[in-house]
Amino acid sequence: MRHLIIVVSVLFITSTSLSAAEFYIDPEAGDSRNDGSVNNPWKSLQEVFDSGFVESREWDQLPFSEESRLVKKNEGAPVKAGDTIWLRSGFYGEFVISGFNNEDFITIAAMPGHKPRFSRISLTACSNFVMKGLDVCAEYATAEKPRTMVALKSHGWHGPISDIVVEDCRIRSAADTSAWSAEDWNDRSCNGIQVDGTRMTVRDNHLKNVNFGISVDAEHSMIESNIVENFAGDGLRGLGDNTVFQYNTVKNCYDVNANHDDGFQSWSTGDQGVGSGRVTGIVLRGNRIINYEDPDQPHRGALQGIGCFDGMYVDWVIENNVVIVDHWHGITLGGAKGCRVVNNTVLDPDDDRPGPAWIRVDKHKNGTPSSNCVIRNNLAPSISTGDGGENMVVDHNLTFNTTDHFFVNADGYDLRLRERSPAIDAGSPKFSPLIDIRQIKRPQGQGVDIGAYEFKQQ
Questions:
Q1: 3-class secondary structure, 194
Q2: I want to staple 408 with a disulfide (CB 3.0 to 4.6 A). Which of 74, 318, 362, 414 is the partner?
Q3: Does residue 7 lie within any of the structural domains?
Q4: From start to end of 76-185, where are the E strands?
Q5: 340-342 and 414-417 strand pairing
Q6: What mean pLDDT do residues 374-379 have?
């Protein structure tokens, strides 16, 4: 019976891949009258969708409601669910679509070795798309620059968005901002990615020279292995429930306005406005947040690391993160219930104020105490529960005033544990992640190490 199941599975996968088709677009050598084949590519991605070449589904009645049902759209069109549209090098302008809800993923991807360039991408009320390997830059815009370069949006009239993957894309306001003044950063930087909906994936993208990096209202989603480099707002924002932010790098904050810049920020909303609701089930795992790499960086300012000041935050897991910020707020939750803050490393790169950086789970700003939280196995200059809380567990943490005995090279931001570091084998296994920030198995020695890095003998 086991062999039969394996054979059936293989046949299913094979039949699915055989039924998928591939189409090609070449903005320089293509023609809209072609059939989209490898030797006869289409010219415009936008035109392919606008001209009805993509079979999909749409809601049978608008405005969208719970009674709306999906019906065929462009039935019989050549591009169908499961197909791939390959993009060759060239400029594609803006790509803006709404109301395409595919039964299976349609992949829109750069051909290997090619560089398709866009000024903006916007998907509204769509589902089941993969966008891969695209170069999106506001500087490419021939008219007004976009406010957000990649927007994945739900819409009250047109319906929700879901099941979109954006991966391996390069997203920039401009290629070179080295000569930008503070005014330039305010006027010319654009937001990177805005994510609404559910079951969204943003993976392996490199965002550079942006205002806000990746802002996520989506629920049940995955934001992983992205780089947000050179930003003037917040690096990451997470406002939707049950979303995972893992193994992202956020670095180099440009302090050019009154925004309180955060590597990661969240807040709740409710009937009484900001701070009157809940954000539930967020996971922050293995992220690196770095205030600045170059002490002489222009427009360098203080960055709050993981700054969450308007709870309640419920059932969060914050583990294996490295936070290097010149601020008090290394990791701060203001109003938390049932949250775990475990095996994080926080460093303040200098002795100037504001700072030193701390890990703190404090009361809500309305006075509601935090409760039933665990703060364990963390390594930071300061660790506390502020004004206290209810049923709070704070144990197996280490604080430090000097880094010499703890890290390989703190000045170079190498926060691996040095041999004979006091953090080695000093942690508790309870709630400790089974791997460290490098995904090395814990423990390596007789016990779990404190901080984001498990010491591994070379």
A1: strand
A2: 414
A3: no
A4: 84-87, 90-98, 101-110, 116-124, 127-132, 135-137, 148-153, 162-167, 170-172
A5: unpaired
A6: 98
Range of the domain at 80: 21-417
Has residue 56 been placed in a domain?
Answer: yes
Query: What CATH number is given to the structural domain containing 52?
Result: 2.160.20.10
Mean pLDDT of 399-423: 96
8 pLDDT exceeds 70?
Answer: no
Domain-embedded: residue 448: no
Rg (CA), the chain: 24
Confidence of residue 5 (pLDDT cuts 50, 70, 90): very low
- Residues 30 and 41 sit within 8 Å (Cβ to Cβ): yes
Q: Which residue has the tokens 């309640």?
A: 312
pLDDT score recorded for residue 19: 74
Q: How many CB atoms lie within 10 A of CB 105?
A: 18
> Residues 296-300: what's their mean pLDDT?
95
Count: domains in the chain: 1
pTM for this prediction: 0.94
Within a domain: 432? no
Tokens 């003998």, residue located: 457
Which structure tokens are listed for 432? 């400790």
The full DSSP string for 296-365 is T-TTB---EEEEEEE--EES-EEES-EEE-SSSEEEEEESEES-EEES-EEE-SSSPSS---EEEEE--T
3: left (phi over 0), alpha (psi -120 to 50) or beta: alpha
